[in-house]
Amino acid sequence: MQVHPSAIVSQKAKLADDVVIGPYTIIADKVRIGPGTSIGAHCVVEGNTAIGKSCKIFTGAVIGSPPQDLKYKGEKSFLEIGDNNIIREYCTFNPGTGESGKTVVGNNNLFMAYAHVAHDCVVGNNCVIANNGTLAGHVTIEDGVVIGGLAAIHQFVRVGMLSIIGGCSKVVQDIPPYSTCDGHPARVYGLNLIGLKRNVIHKDSITALHRAFKILLNSGLALKHIITKIEKEVTSSAEVAYLVNFLKNSERGISRPCRLNKD
């Protein structure tokens, strides 16, 4: 273990043998850090926080500090961060609110400088949250999502897999999977073709999704009728089924189109 002499590491913390701790960093009692993880200078890691293997945490990050939630009264809550995450300068991650509340971050994510993950969030795998991207409490970010800089996600919003959100967007309703969206408030523009191709989604599924999105964006129907129309008219695939299930289970409602597509 390589710990800078100026760092303060609790003897009660559980660190793997090859963890690297930078200058003036503080590691509190209940922290657990996996092998191959490095933490830069002037960081604070506290609370019931578990960090997986091969993560890289940069200068000034504050990980596991109490949630910024007036309901929080000091209950025992948790923050779990998976493997191979890059957490850049001055990011802030909070644990859950309420007894046994939990914030969970998956694997292989990139959080750029000043990104914030609030209490009770769930972040999947292979996501990118750009500079100053902000997740309010109880937000769910599914796998492969890209969130642009300065974008803010309202509490309880769910962002579907392989979607991309433009910078400075204000996201107040659920973002469908496989979509591109932007705006204030955010509206859906269309299908995230680049993301689908990068993830090697079969061309037949992409064609079916394109048809489903034309219905979603252009029909002008209420959501329940959009779902019925997609189920009747679009060739079934795993991706289309996932989209339909997402639409059916949306609690905050779906971000609607910012403009109608003509094609």
Describe this structure in words.
The chain contains four helices and 28 strands. With 263 residues, the chain is an alpha/beta fold. It has two domains: 137 residues, UDP N-Acetylglucosamine Acyltransferase, domain 1; 52 residues, Udp N-acetylglucosamine O-acyltransferase, Domain 2 (Up-down Bundle), CATH 1.20.1180. The strands form three sheets. It has an eleven-stranded mixed β-sheet with strand order 1-4-7-10-13-16-19-22-25-27-28. Strand 27 and strand 28 form a beta hairpin. Helix 2 packs antiparallel against helix 3. It is elongated and about 65 Å long. The N and C termini lie far apart (59 Å). The mean pLDDT is 96.
Write the layout of secondary structure elements.
Elements: E1 2-3, E2 8-9, E3 14-15, E4 20-21, E5 26-27, E6 32-33, E7 38-39, E8 44-45, E9 48-51, E10 56-57, E11 62-63, E12 78-81, E13 86-87, E14 92-93, E15 102-105, E16 110-111, E17 116-117, E18 122-123, E19 128-129, E20 134-135, E21 140-141, E22 146-147, E23 152-153, E24 158-159, E25 164-165, E26 170-171, E27 179-183, E28 186-191, H1 193-198, H2 203-218, H3 223-233, H4 238-248
Parallel strand pairs: 1-4, 2-5, 3-6, 4-7, 5-8, 6-9, 7-10, 8-11, 9-12, 10-13, 11-14, 12-15, 13-16, 14-17, 15-18, 16-19, 17-20, 18-21, 19-22, 20-23, 21-24, 22-25, 23-26, 25-27
Antiparallel strand pairs: 27-28
Helix pairs in contact: 2-3, 2-4, 3-4
